[in-house]
Design a protein that fits this description.
seven-stranded parallel sheet; single chain; alpha/beta; about 45% helix; 7 helices; Rossmann fold
Length: about 250
């Protein structure tokens, strides 16, 4: 694993699942890790876990649905570390509800946190990165940007927007030496992996359901210090599931 000593990274949605594993991995690699989430208790617990494992982490509470809290988040990063090298835009959630019943407020909440939050965090991060000569930004989208289950409209729209936003920002920030890439995870099991069925694993040409570590490795690839030639990319990590044709019996 590449050393991330003396590099500062911010991970949004860092209190559970993929985000928690990403934060822990960068801390283990020597980075100064800033975790943010709306849940203060969980944020402090994850920060303590990272510290107990020998890593360095601080938690800054922020609700990405509120732009003023995003601004305060990045001001806190500036005050404590003076610079930012890496941003992982991981925060996101969905509301699974018939489009006939989904309210405007529910739609707006999903879009504001997932898509607008990604844009605003990236904008504020780029201001810091510009001052220090560049940086790395990774957005976490989803294979649901390209395929769907019923009643997932707001989530799918937000993730599709993140994919498009990624290549737009990659072009806009090119002269700032900031790369912007995107990861679209498929089925990444963050709970009880040992309780999955063999049928669950067989759905994937890779022969297994994904683990958070699969996403961690991709983040490490995109944010490697010497990796300045890969930008604007959407990397699908789904064990080949979206490439497998399925016929109803």
């Amino acid at each position: 694993m590449e050393s991330y000593a003396d590099r500062t990274i911010l991970v949004t949605g860092a209190t559970g699942g993929i985000g928690k594993r990403i934060a822990a991995a960068y801390a283990a690699a020597g980075a100064h890790v800033v975790l943010t989430d709306s849940n203060k208790q969980l944020g402090e617990e994850v920060t303590a876990e990272i510290a107990a494992a020998g890593g360095e982490a601080v938690f800054v509470q922020a609700d990405l649905n509120k732009p003023e809290q995003i601004e305060r988040l990045f001001e806190a990063v500036r005050q404590q570390f003076q610079s930012l090298d890496i941003l992982i835009n991981n925060a996101g959630f969905g509301i699974w509800k018939s489009p006939l019943d989904l309210t405007v407020a529910e739609w707006d909440q999903v879009i504001n946190v997932n898509l607008r939050g990604t844009f605003l965090c990236t904008r504020e991060a780029a201001k810091l990165m510009k001052e220090s000569g560049g940086g790395r930004i990774v957005n976490i989208a989803s294979t649901r940007a390209a395929m769907s289950e019923p009643d997932s409209e707001a989530y799918a729209a937000s993730k599709g927007g993140i994919v498009a936003l990624t290549h737009a920002l990659a072009v806009s920030f090119s002269e700032l030496h900031i790369t912007v890439n995107c990861i679209s995870p498929g089925w990444i099991e963050t709970g009880r992996y040992d309780e999955l069925r063999e049928a669950d694993h067989r759905q994937h040409p890779a022969g297994r359901v994904g683990r958070p570590e699969d996403i961690v490795q991709a983040c490490m690839y995109f944010t490697a210090a010497g990796n300045d030639f890969v930008t604007g990319v959407n990397l699908t990590i789904d064990g080949g599931m979206t490439k497998k044709m399925i016929y109803e019996p």
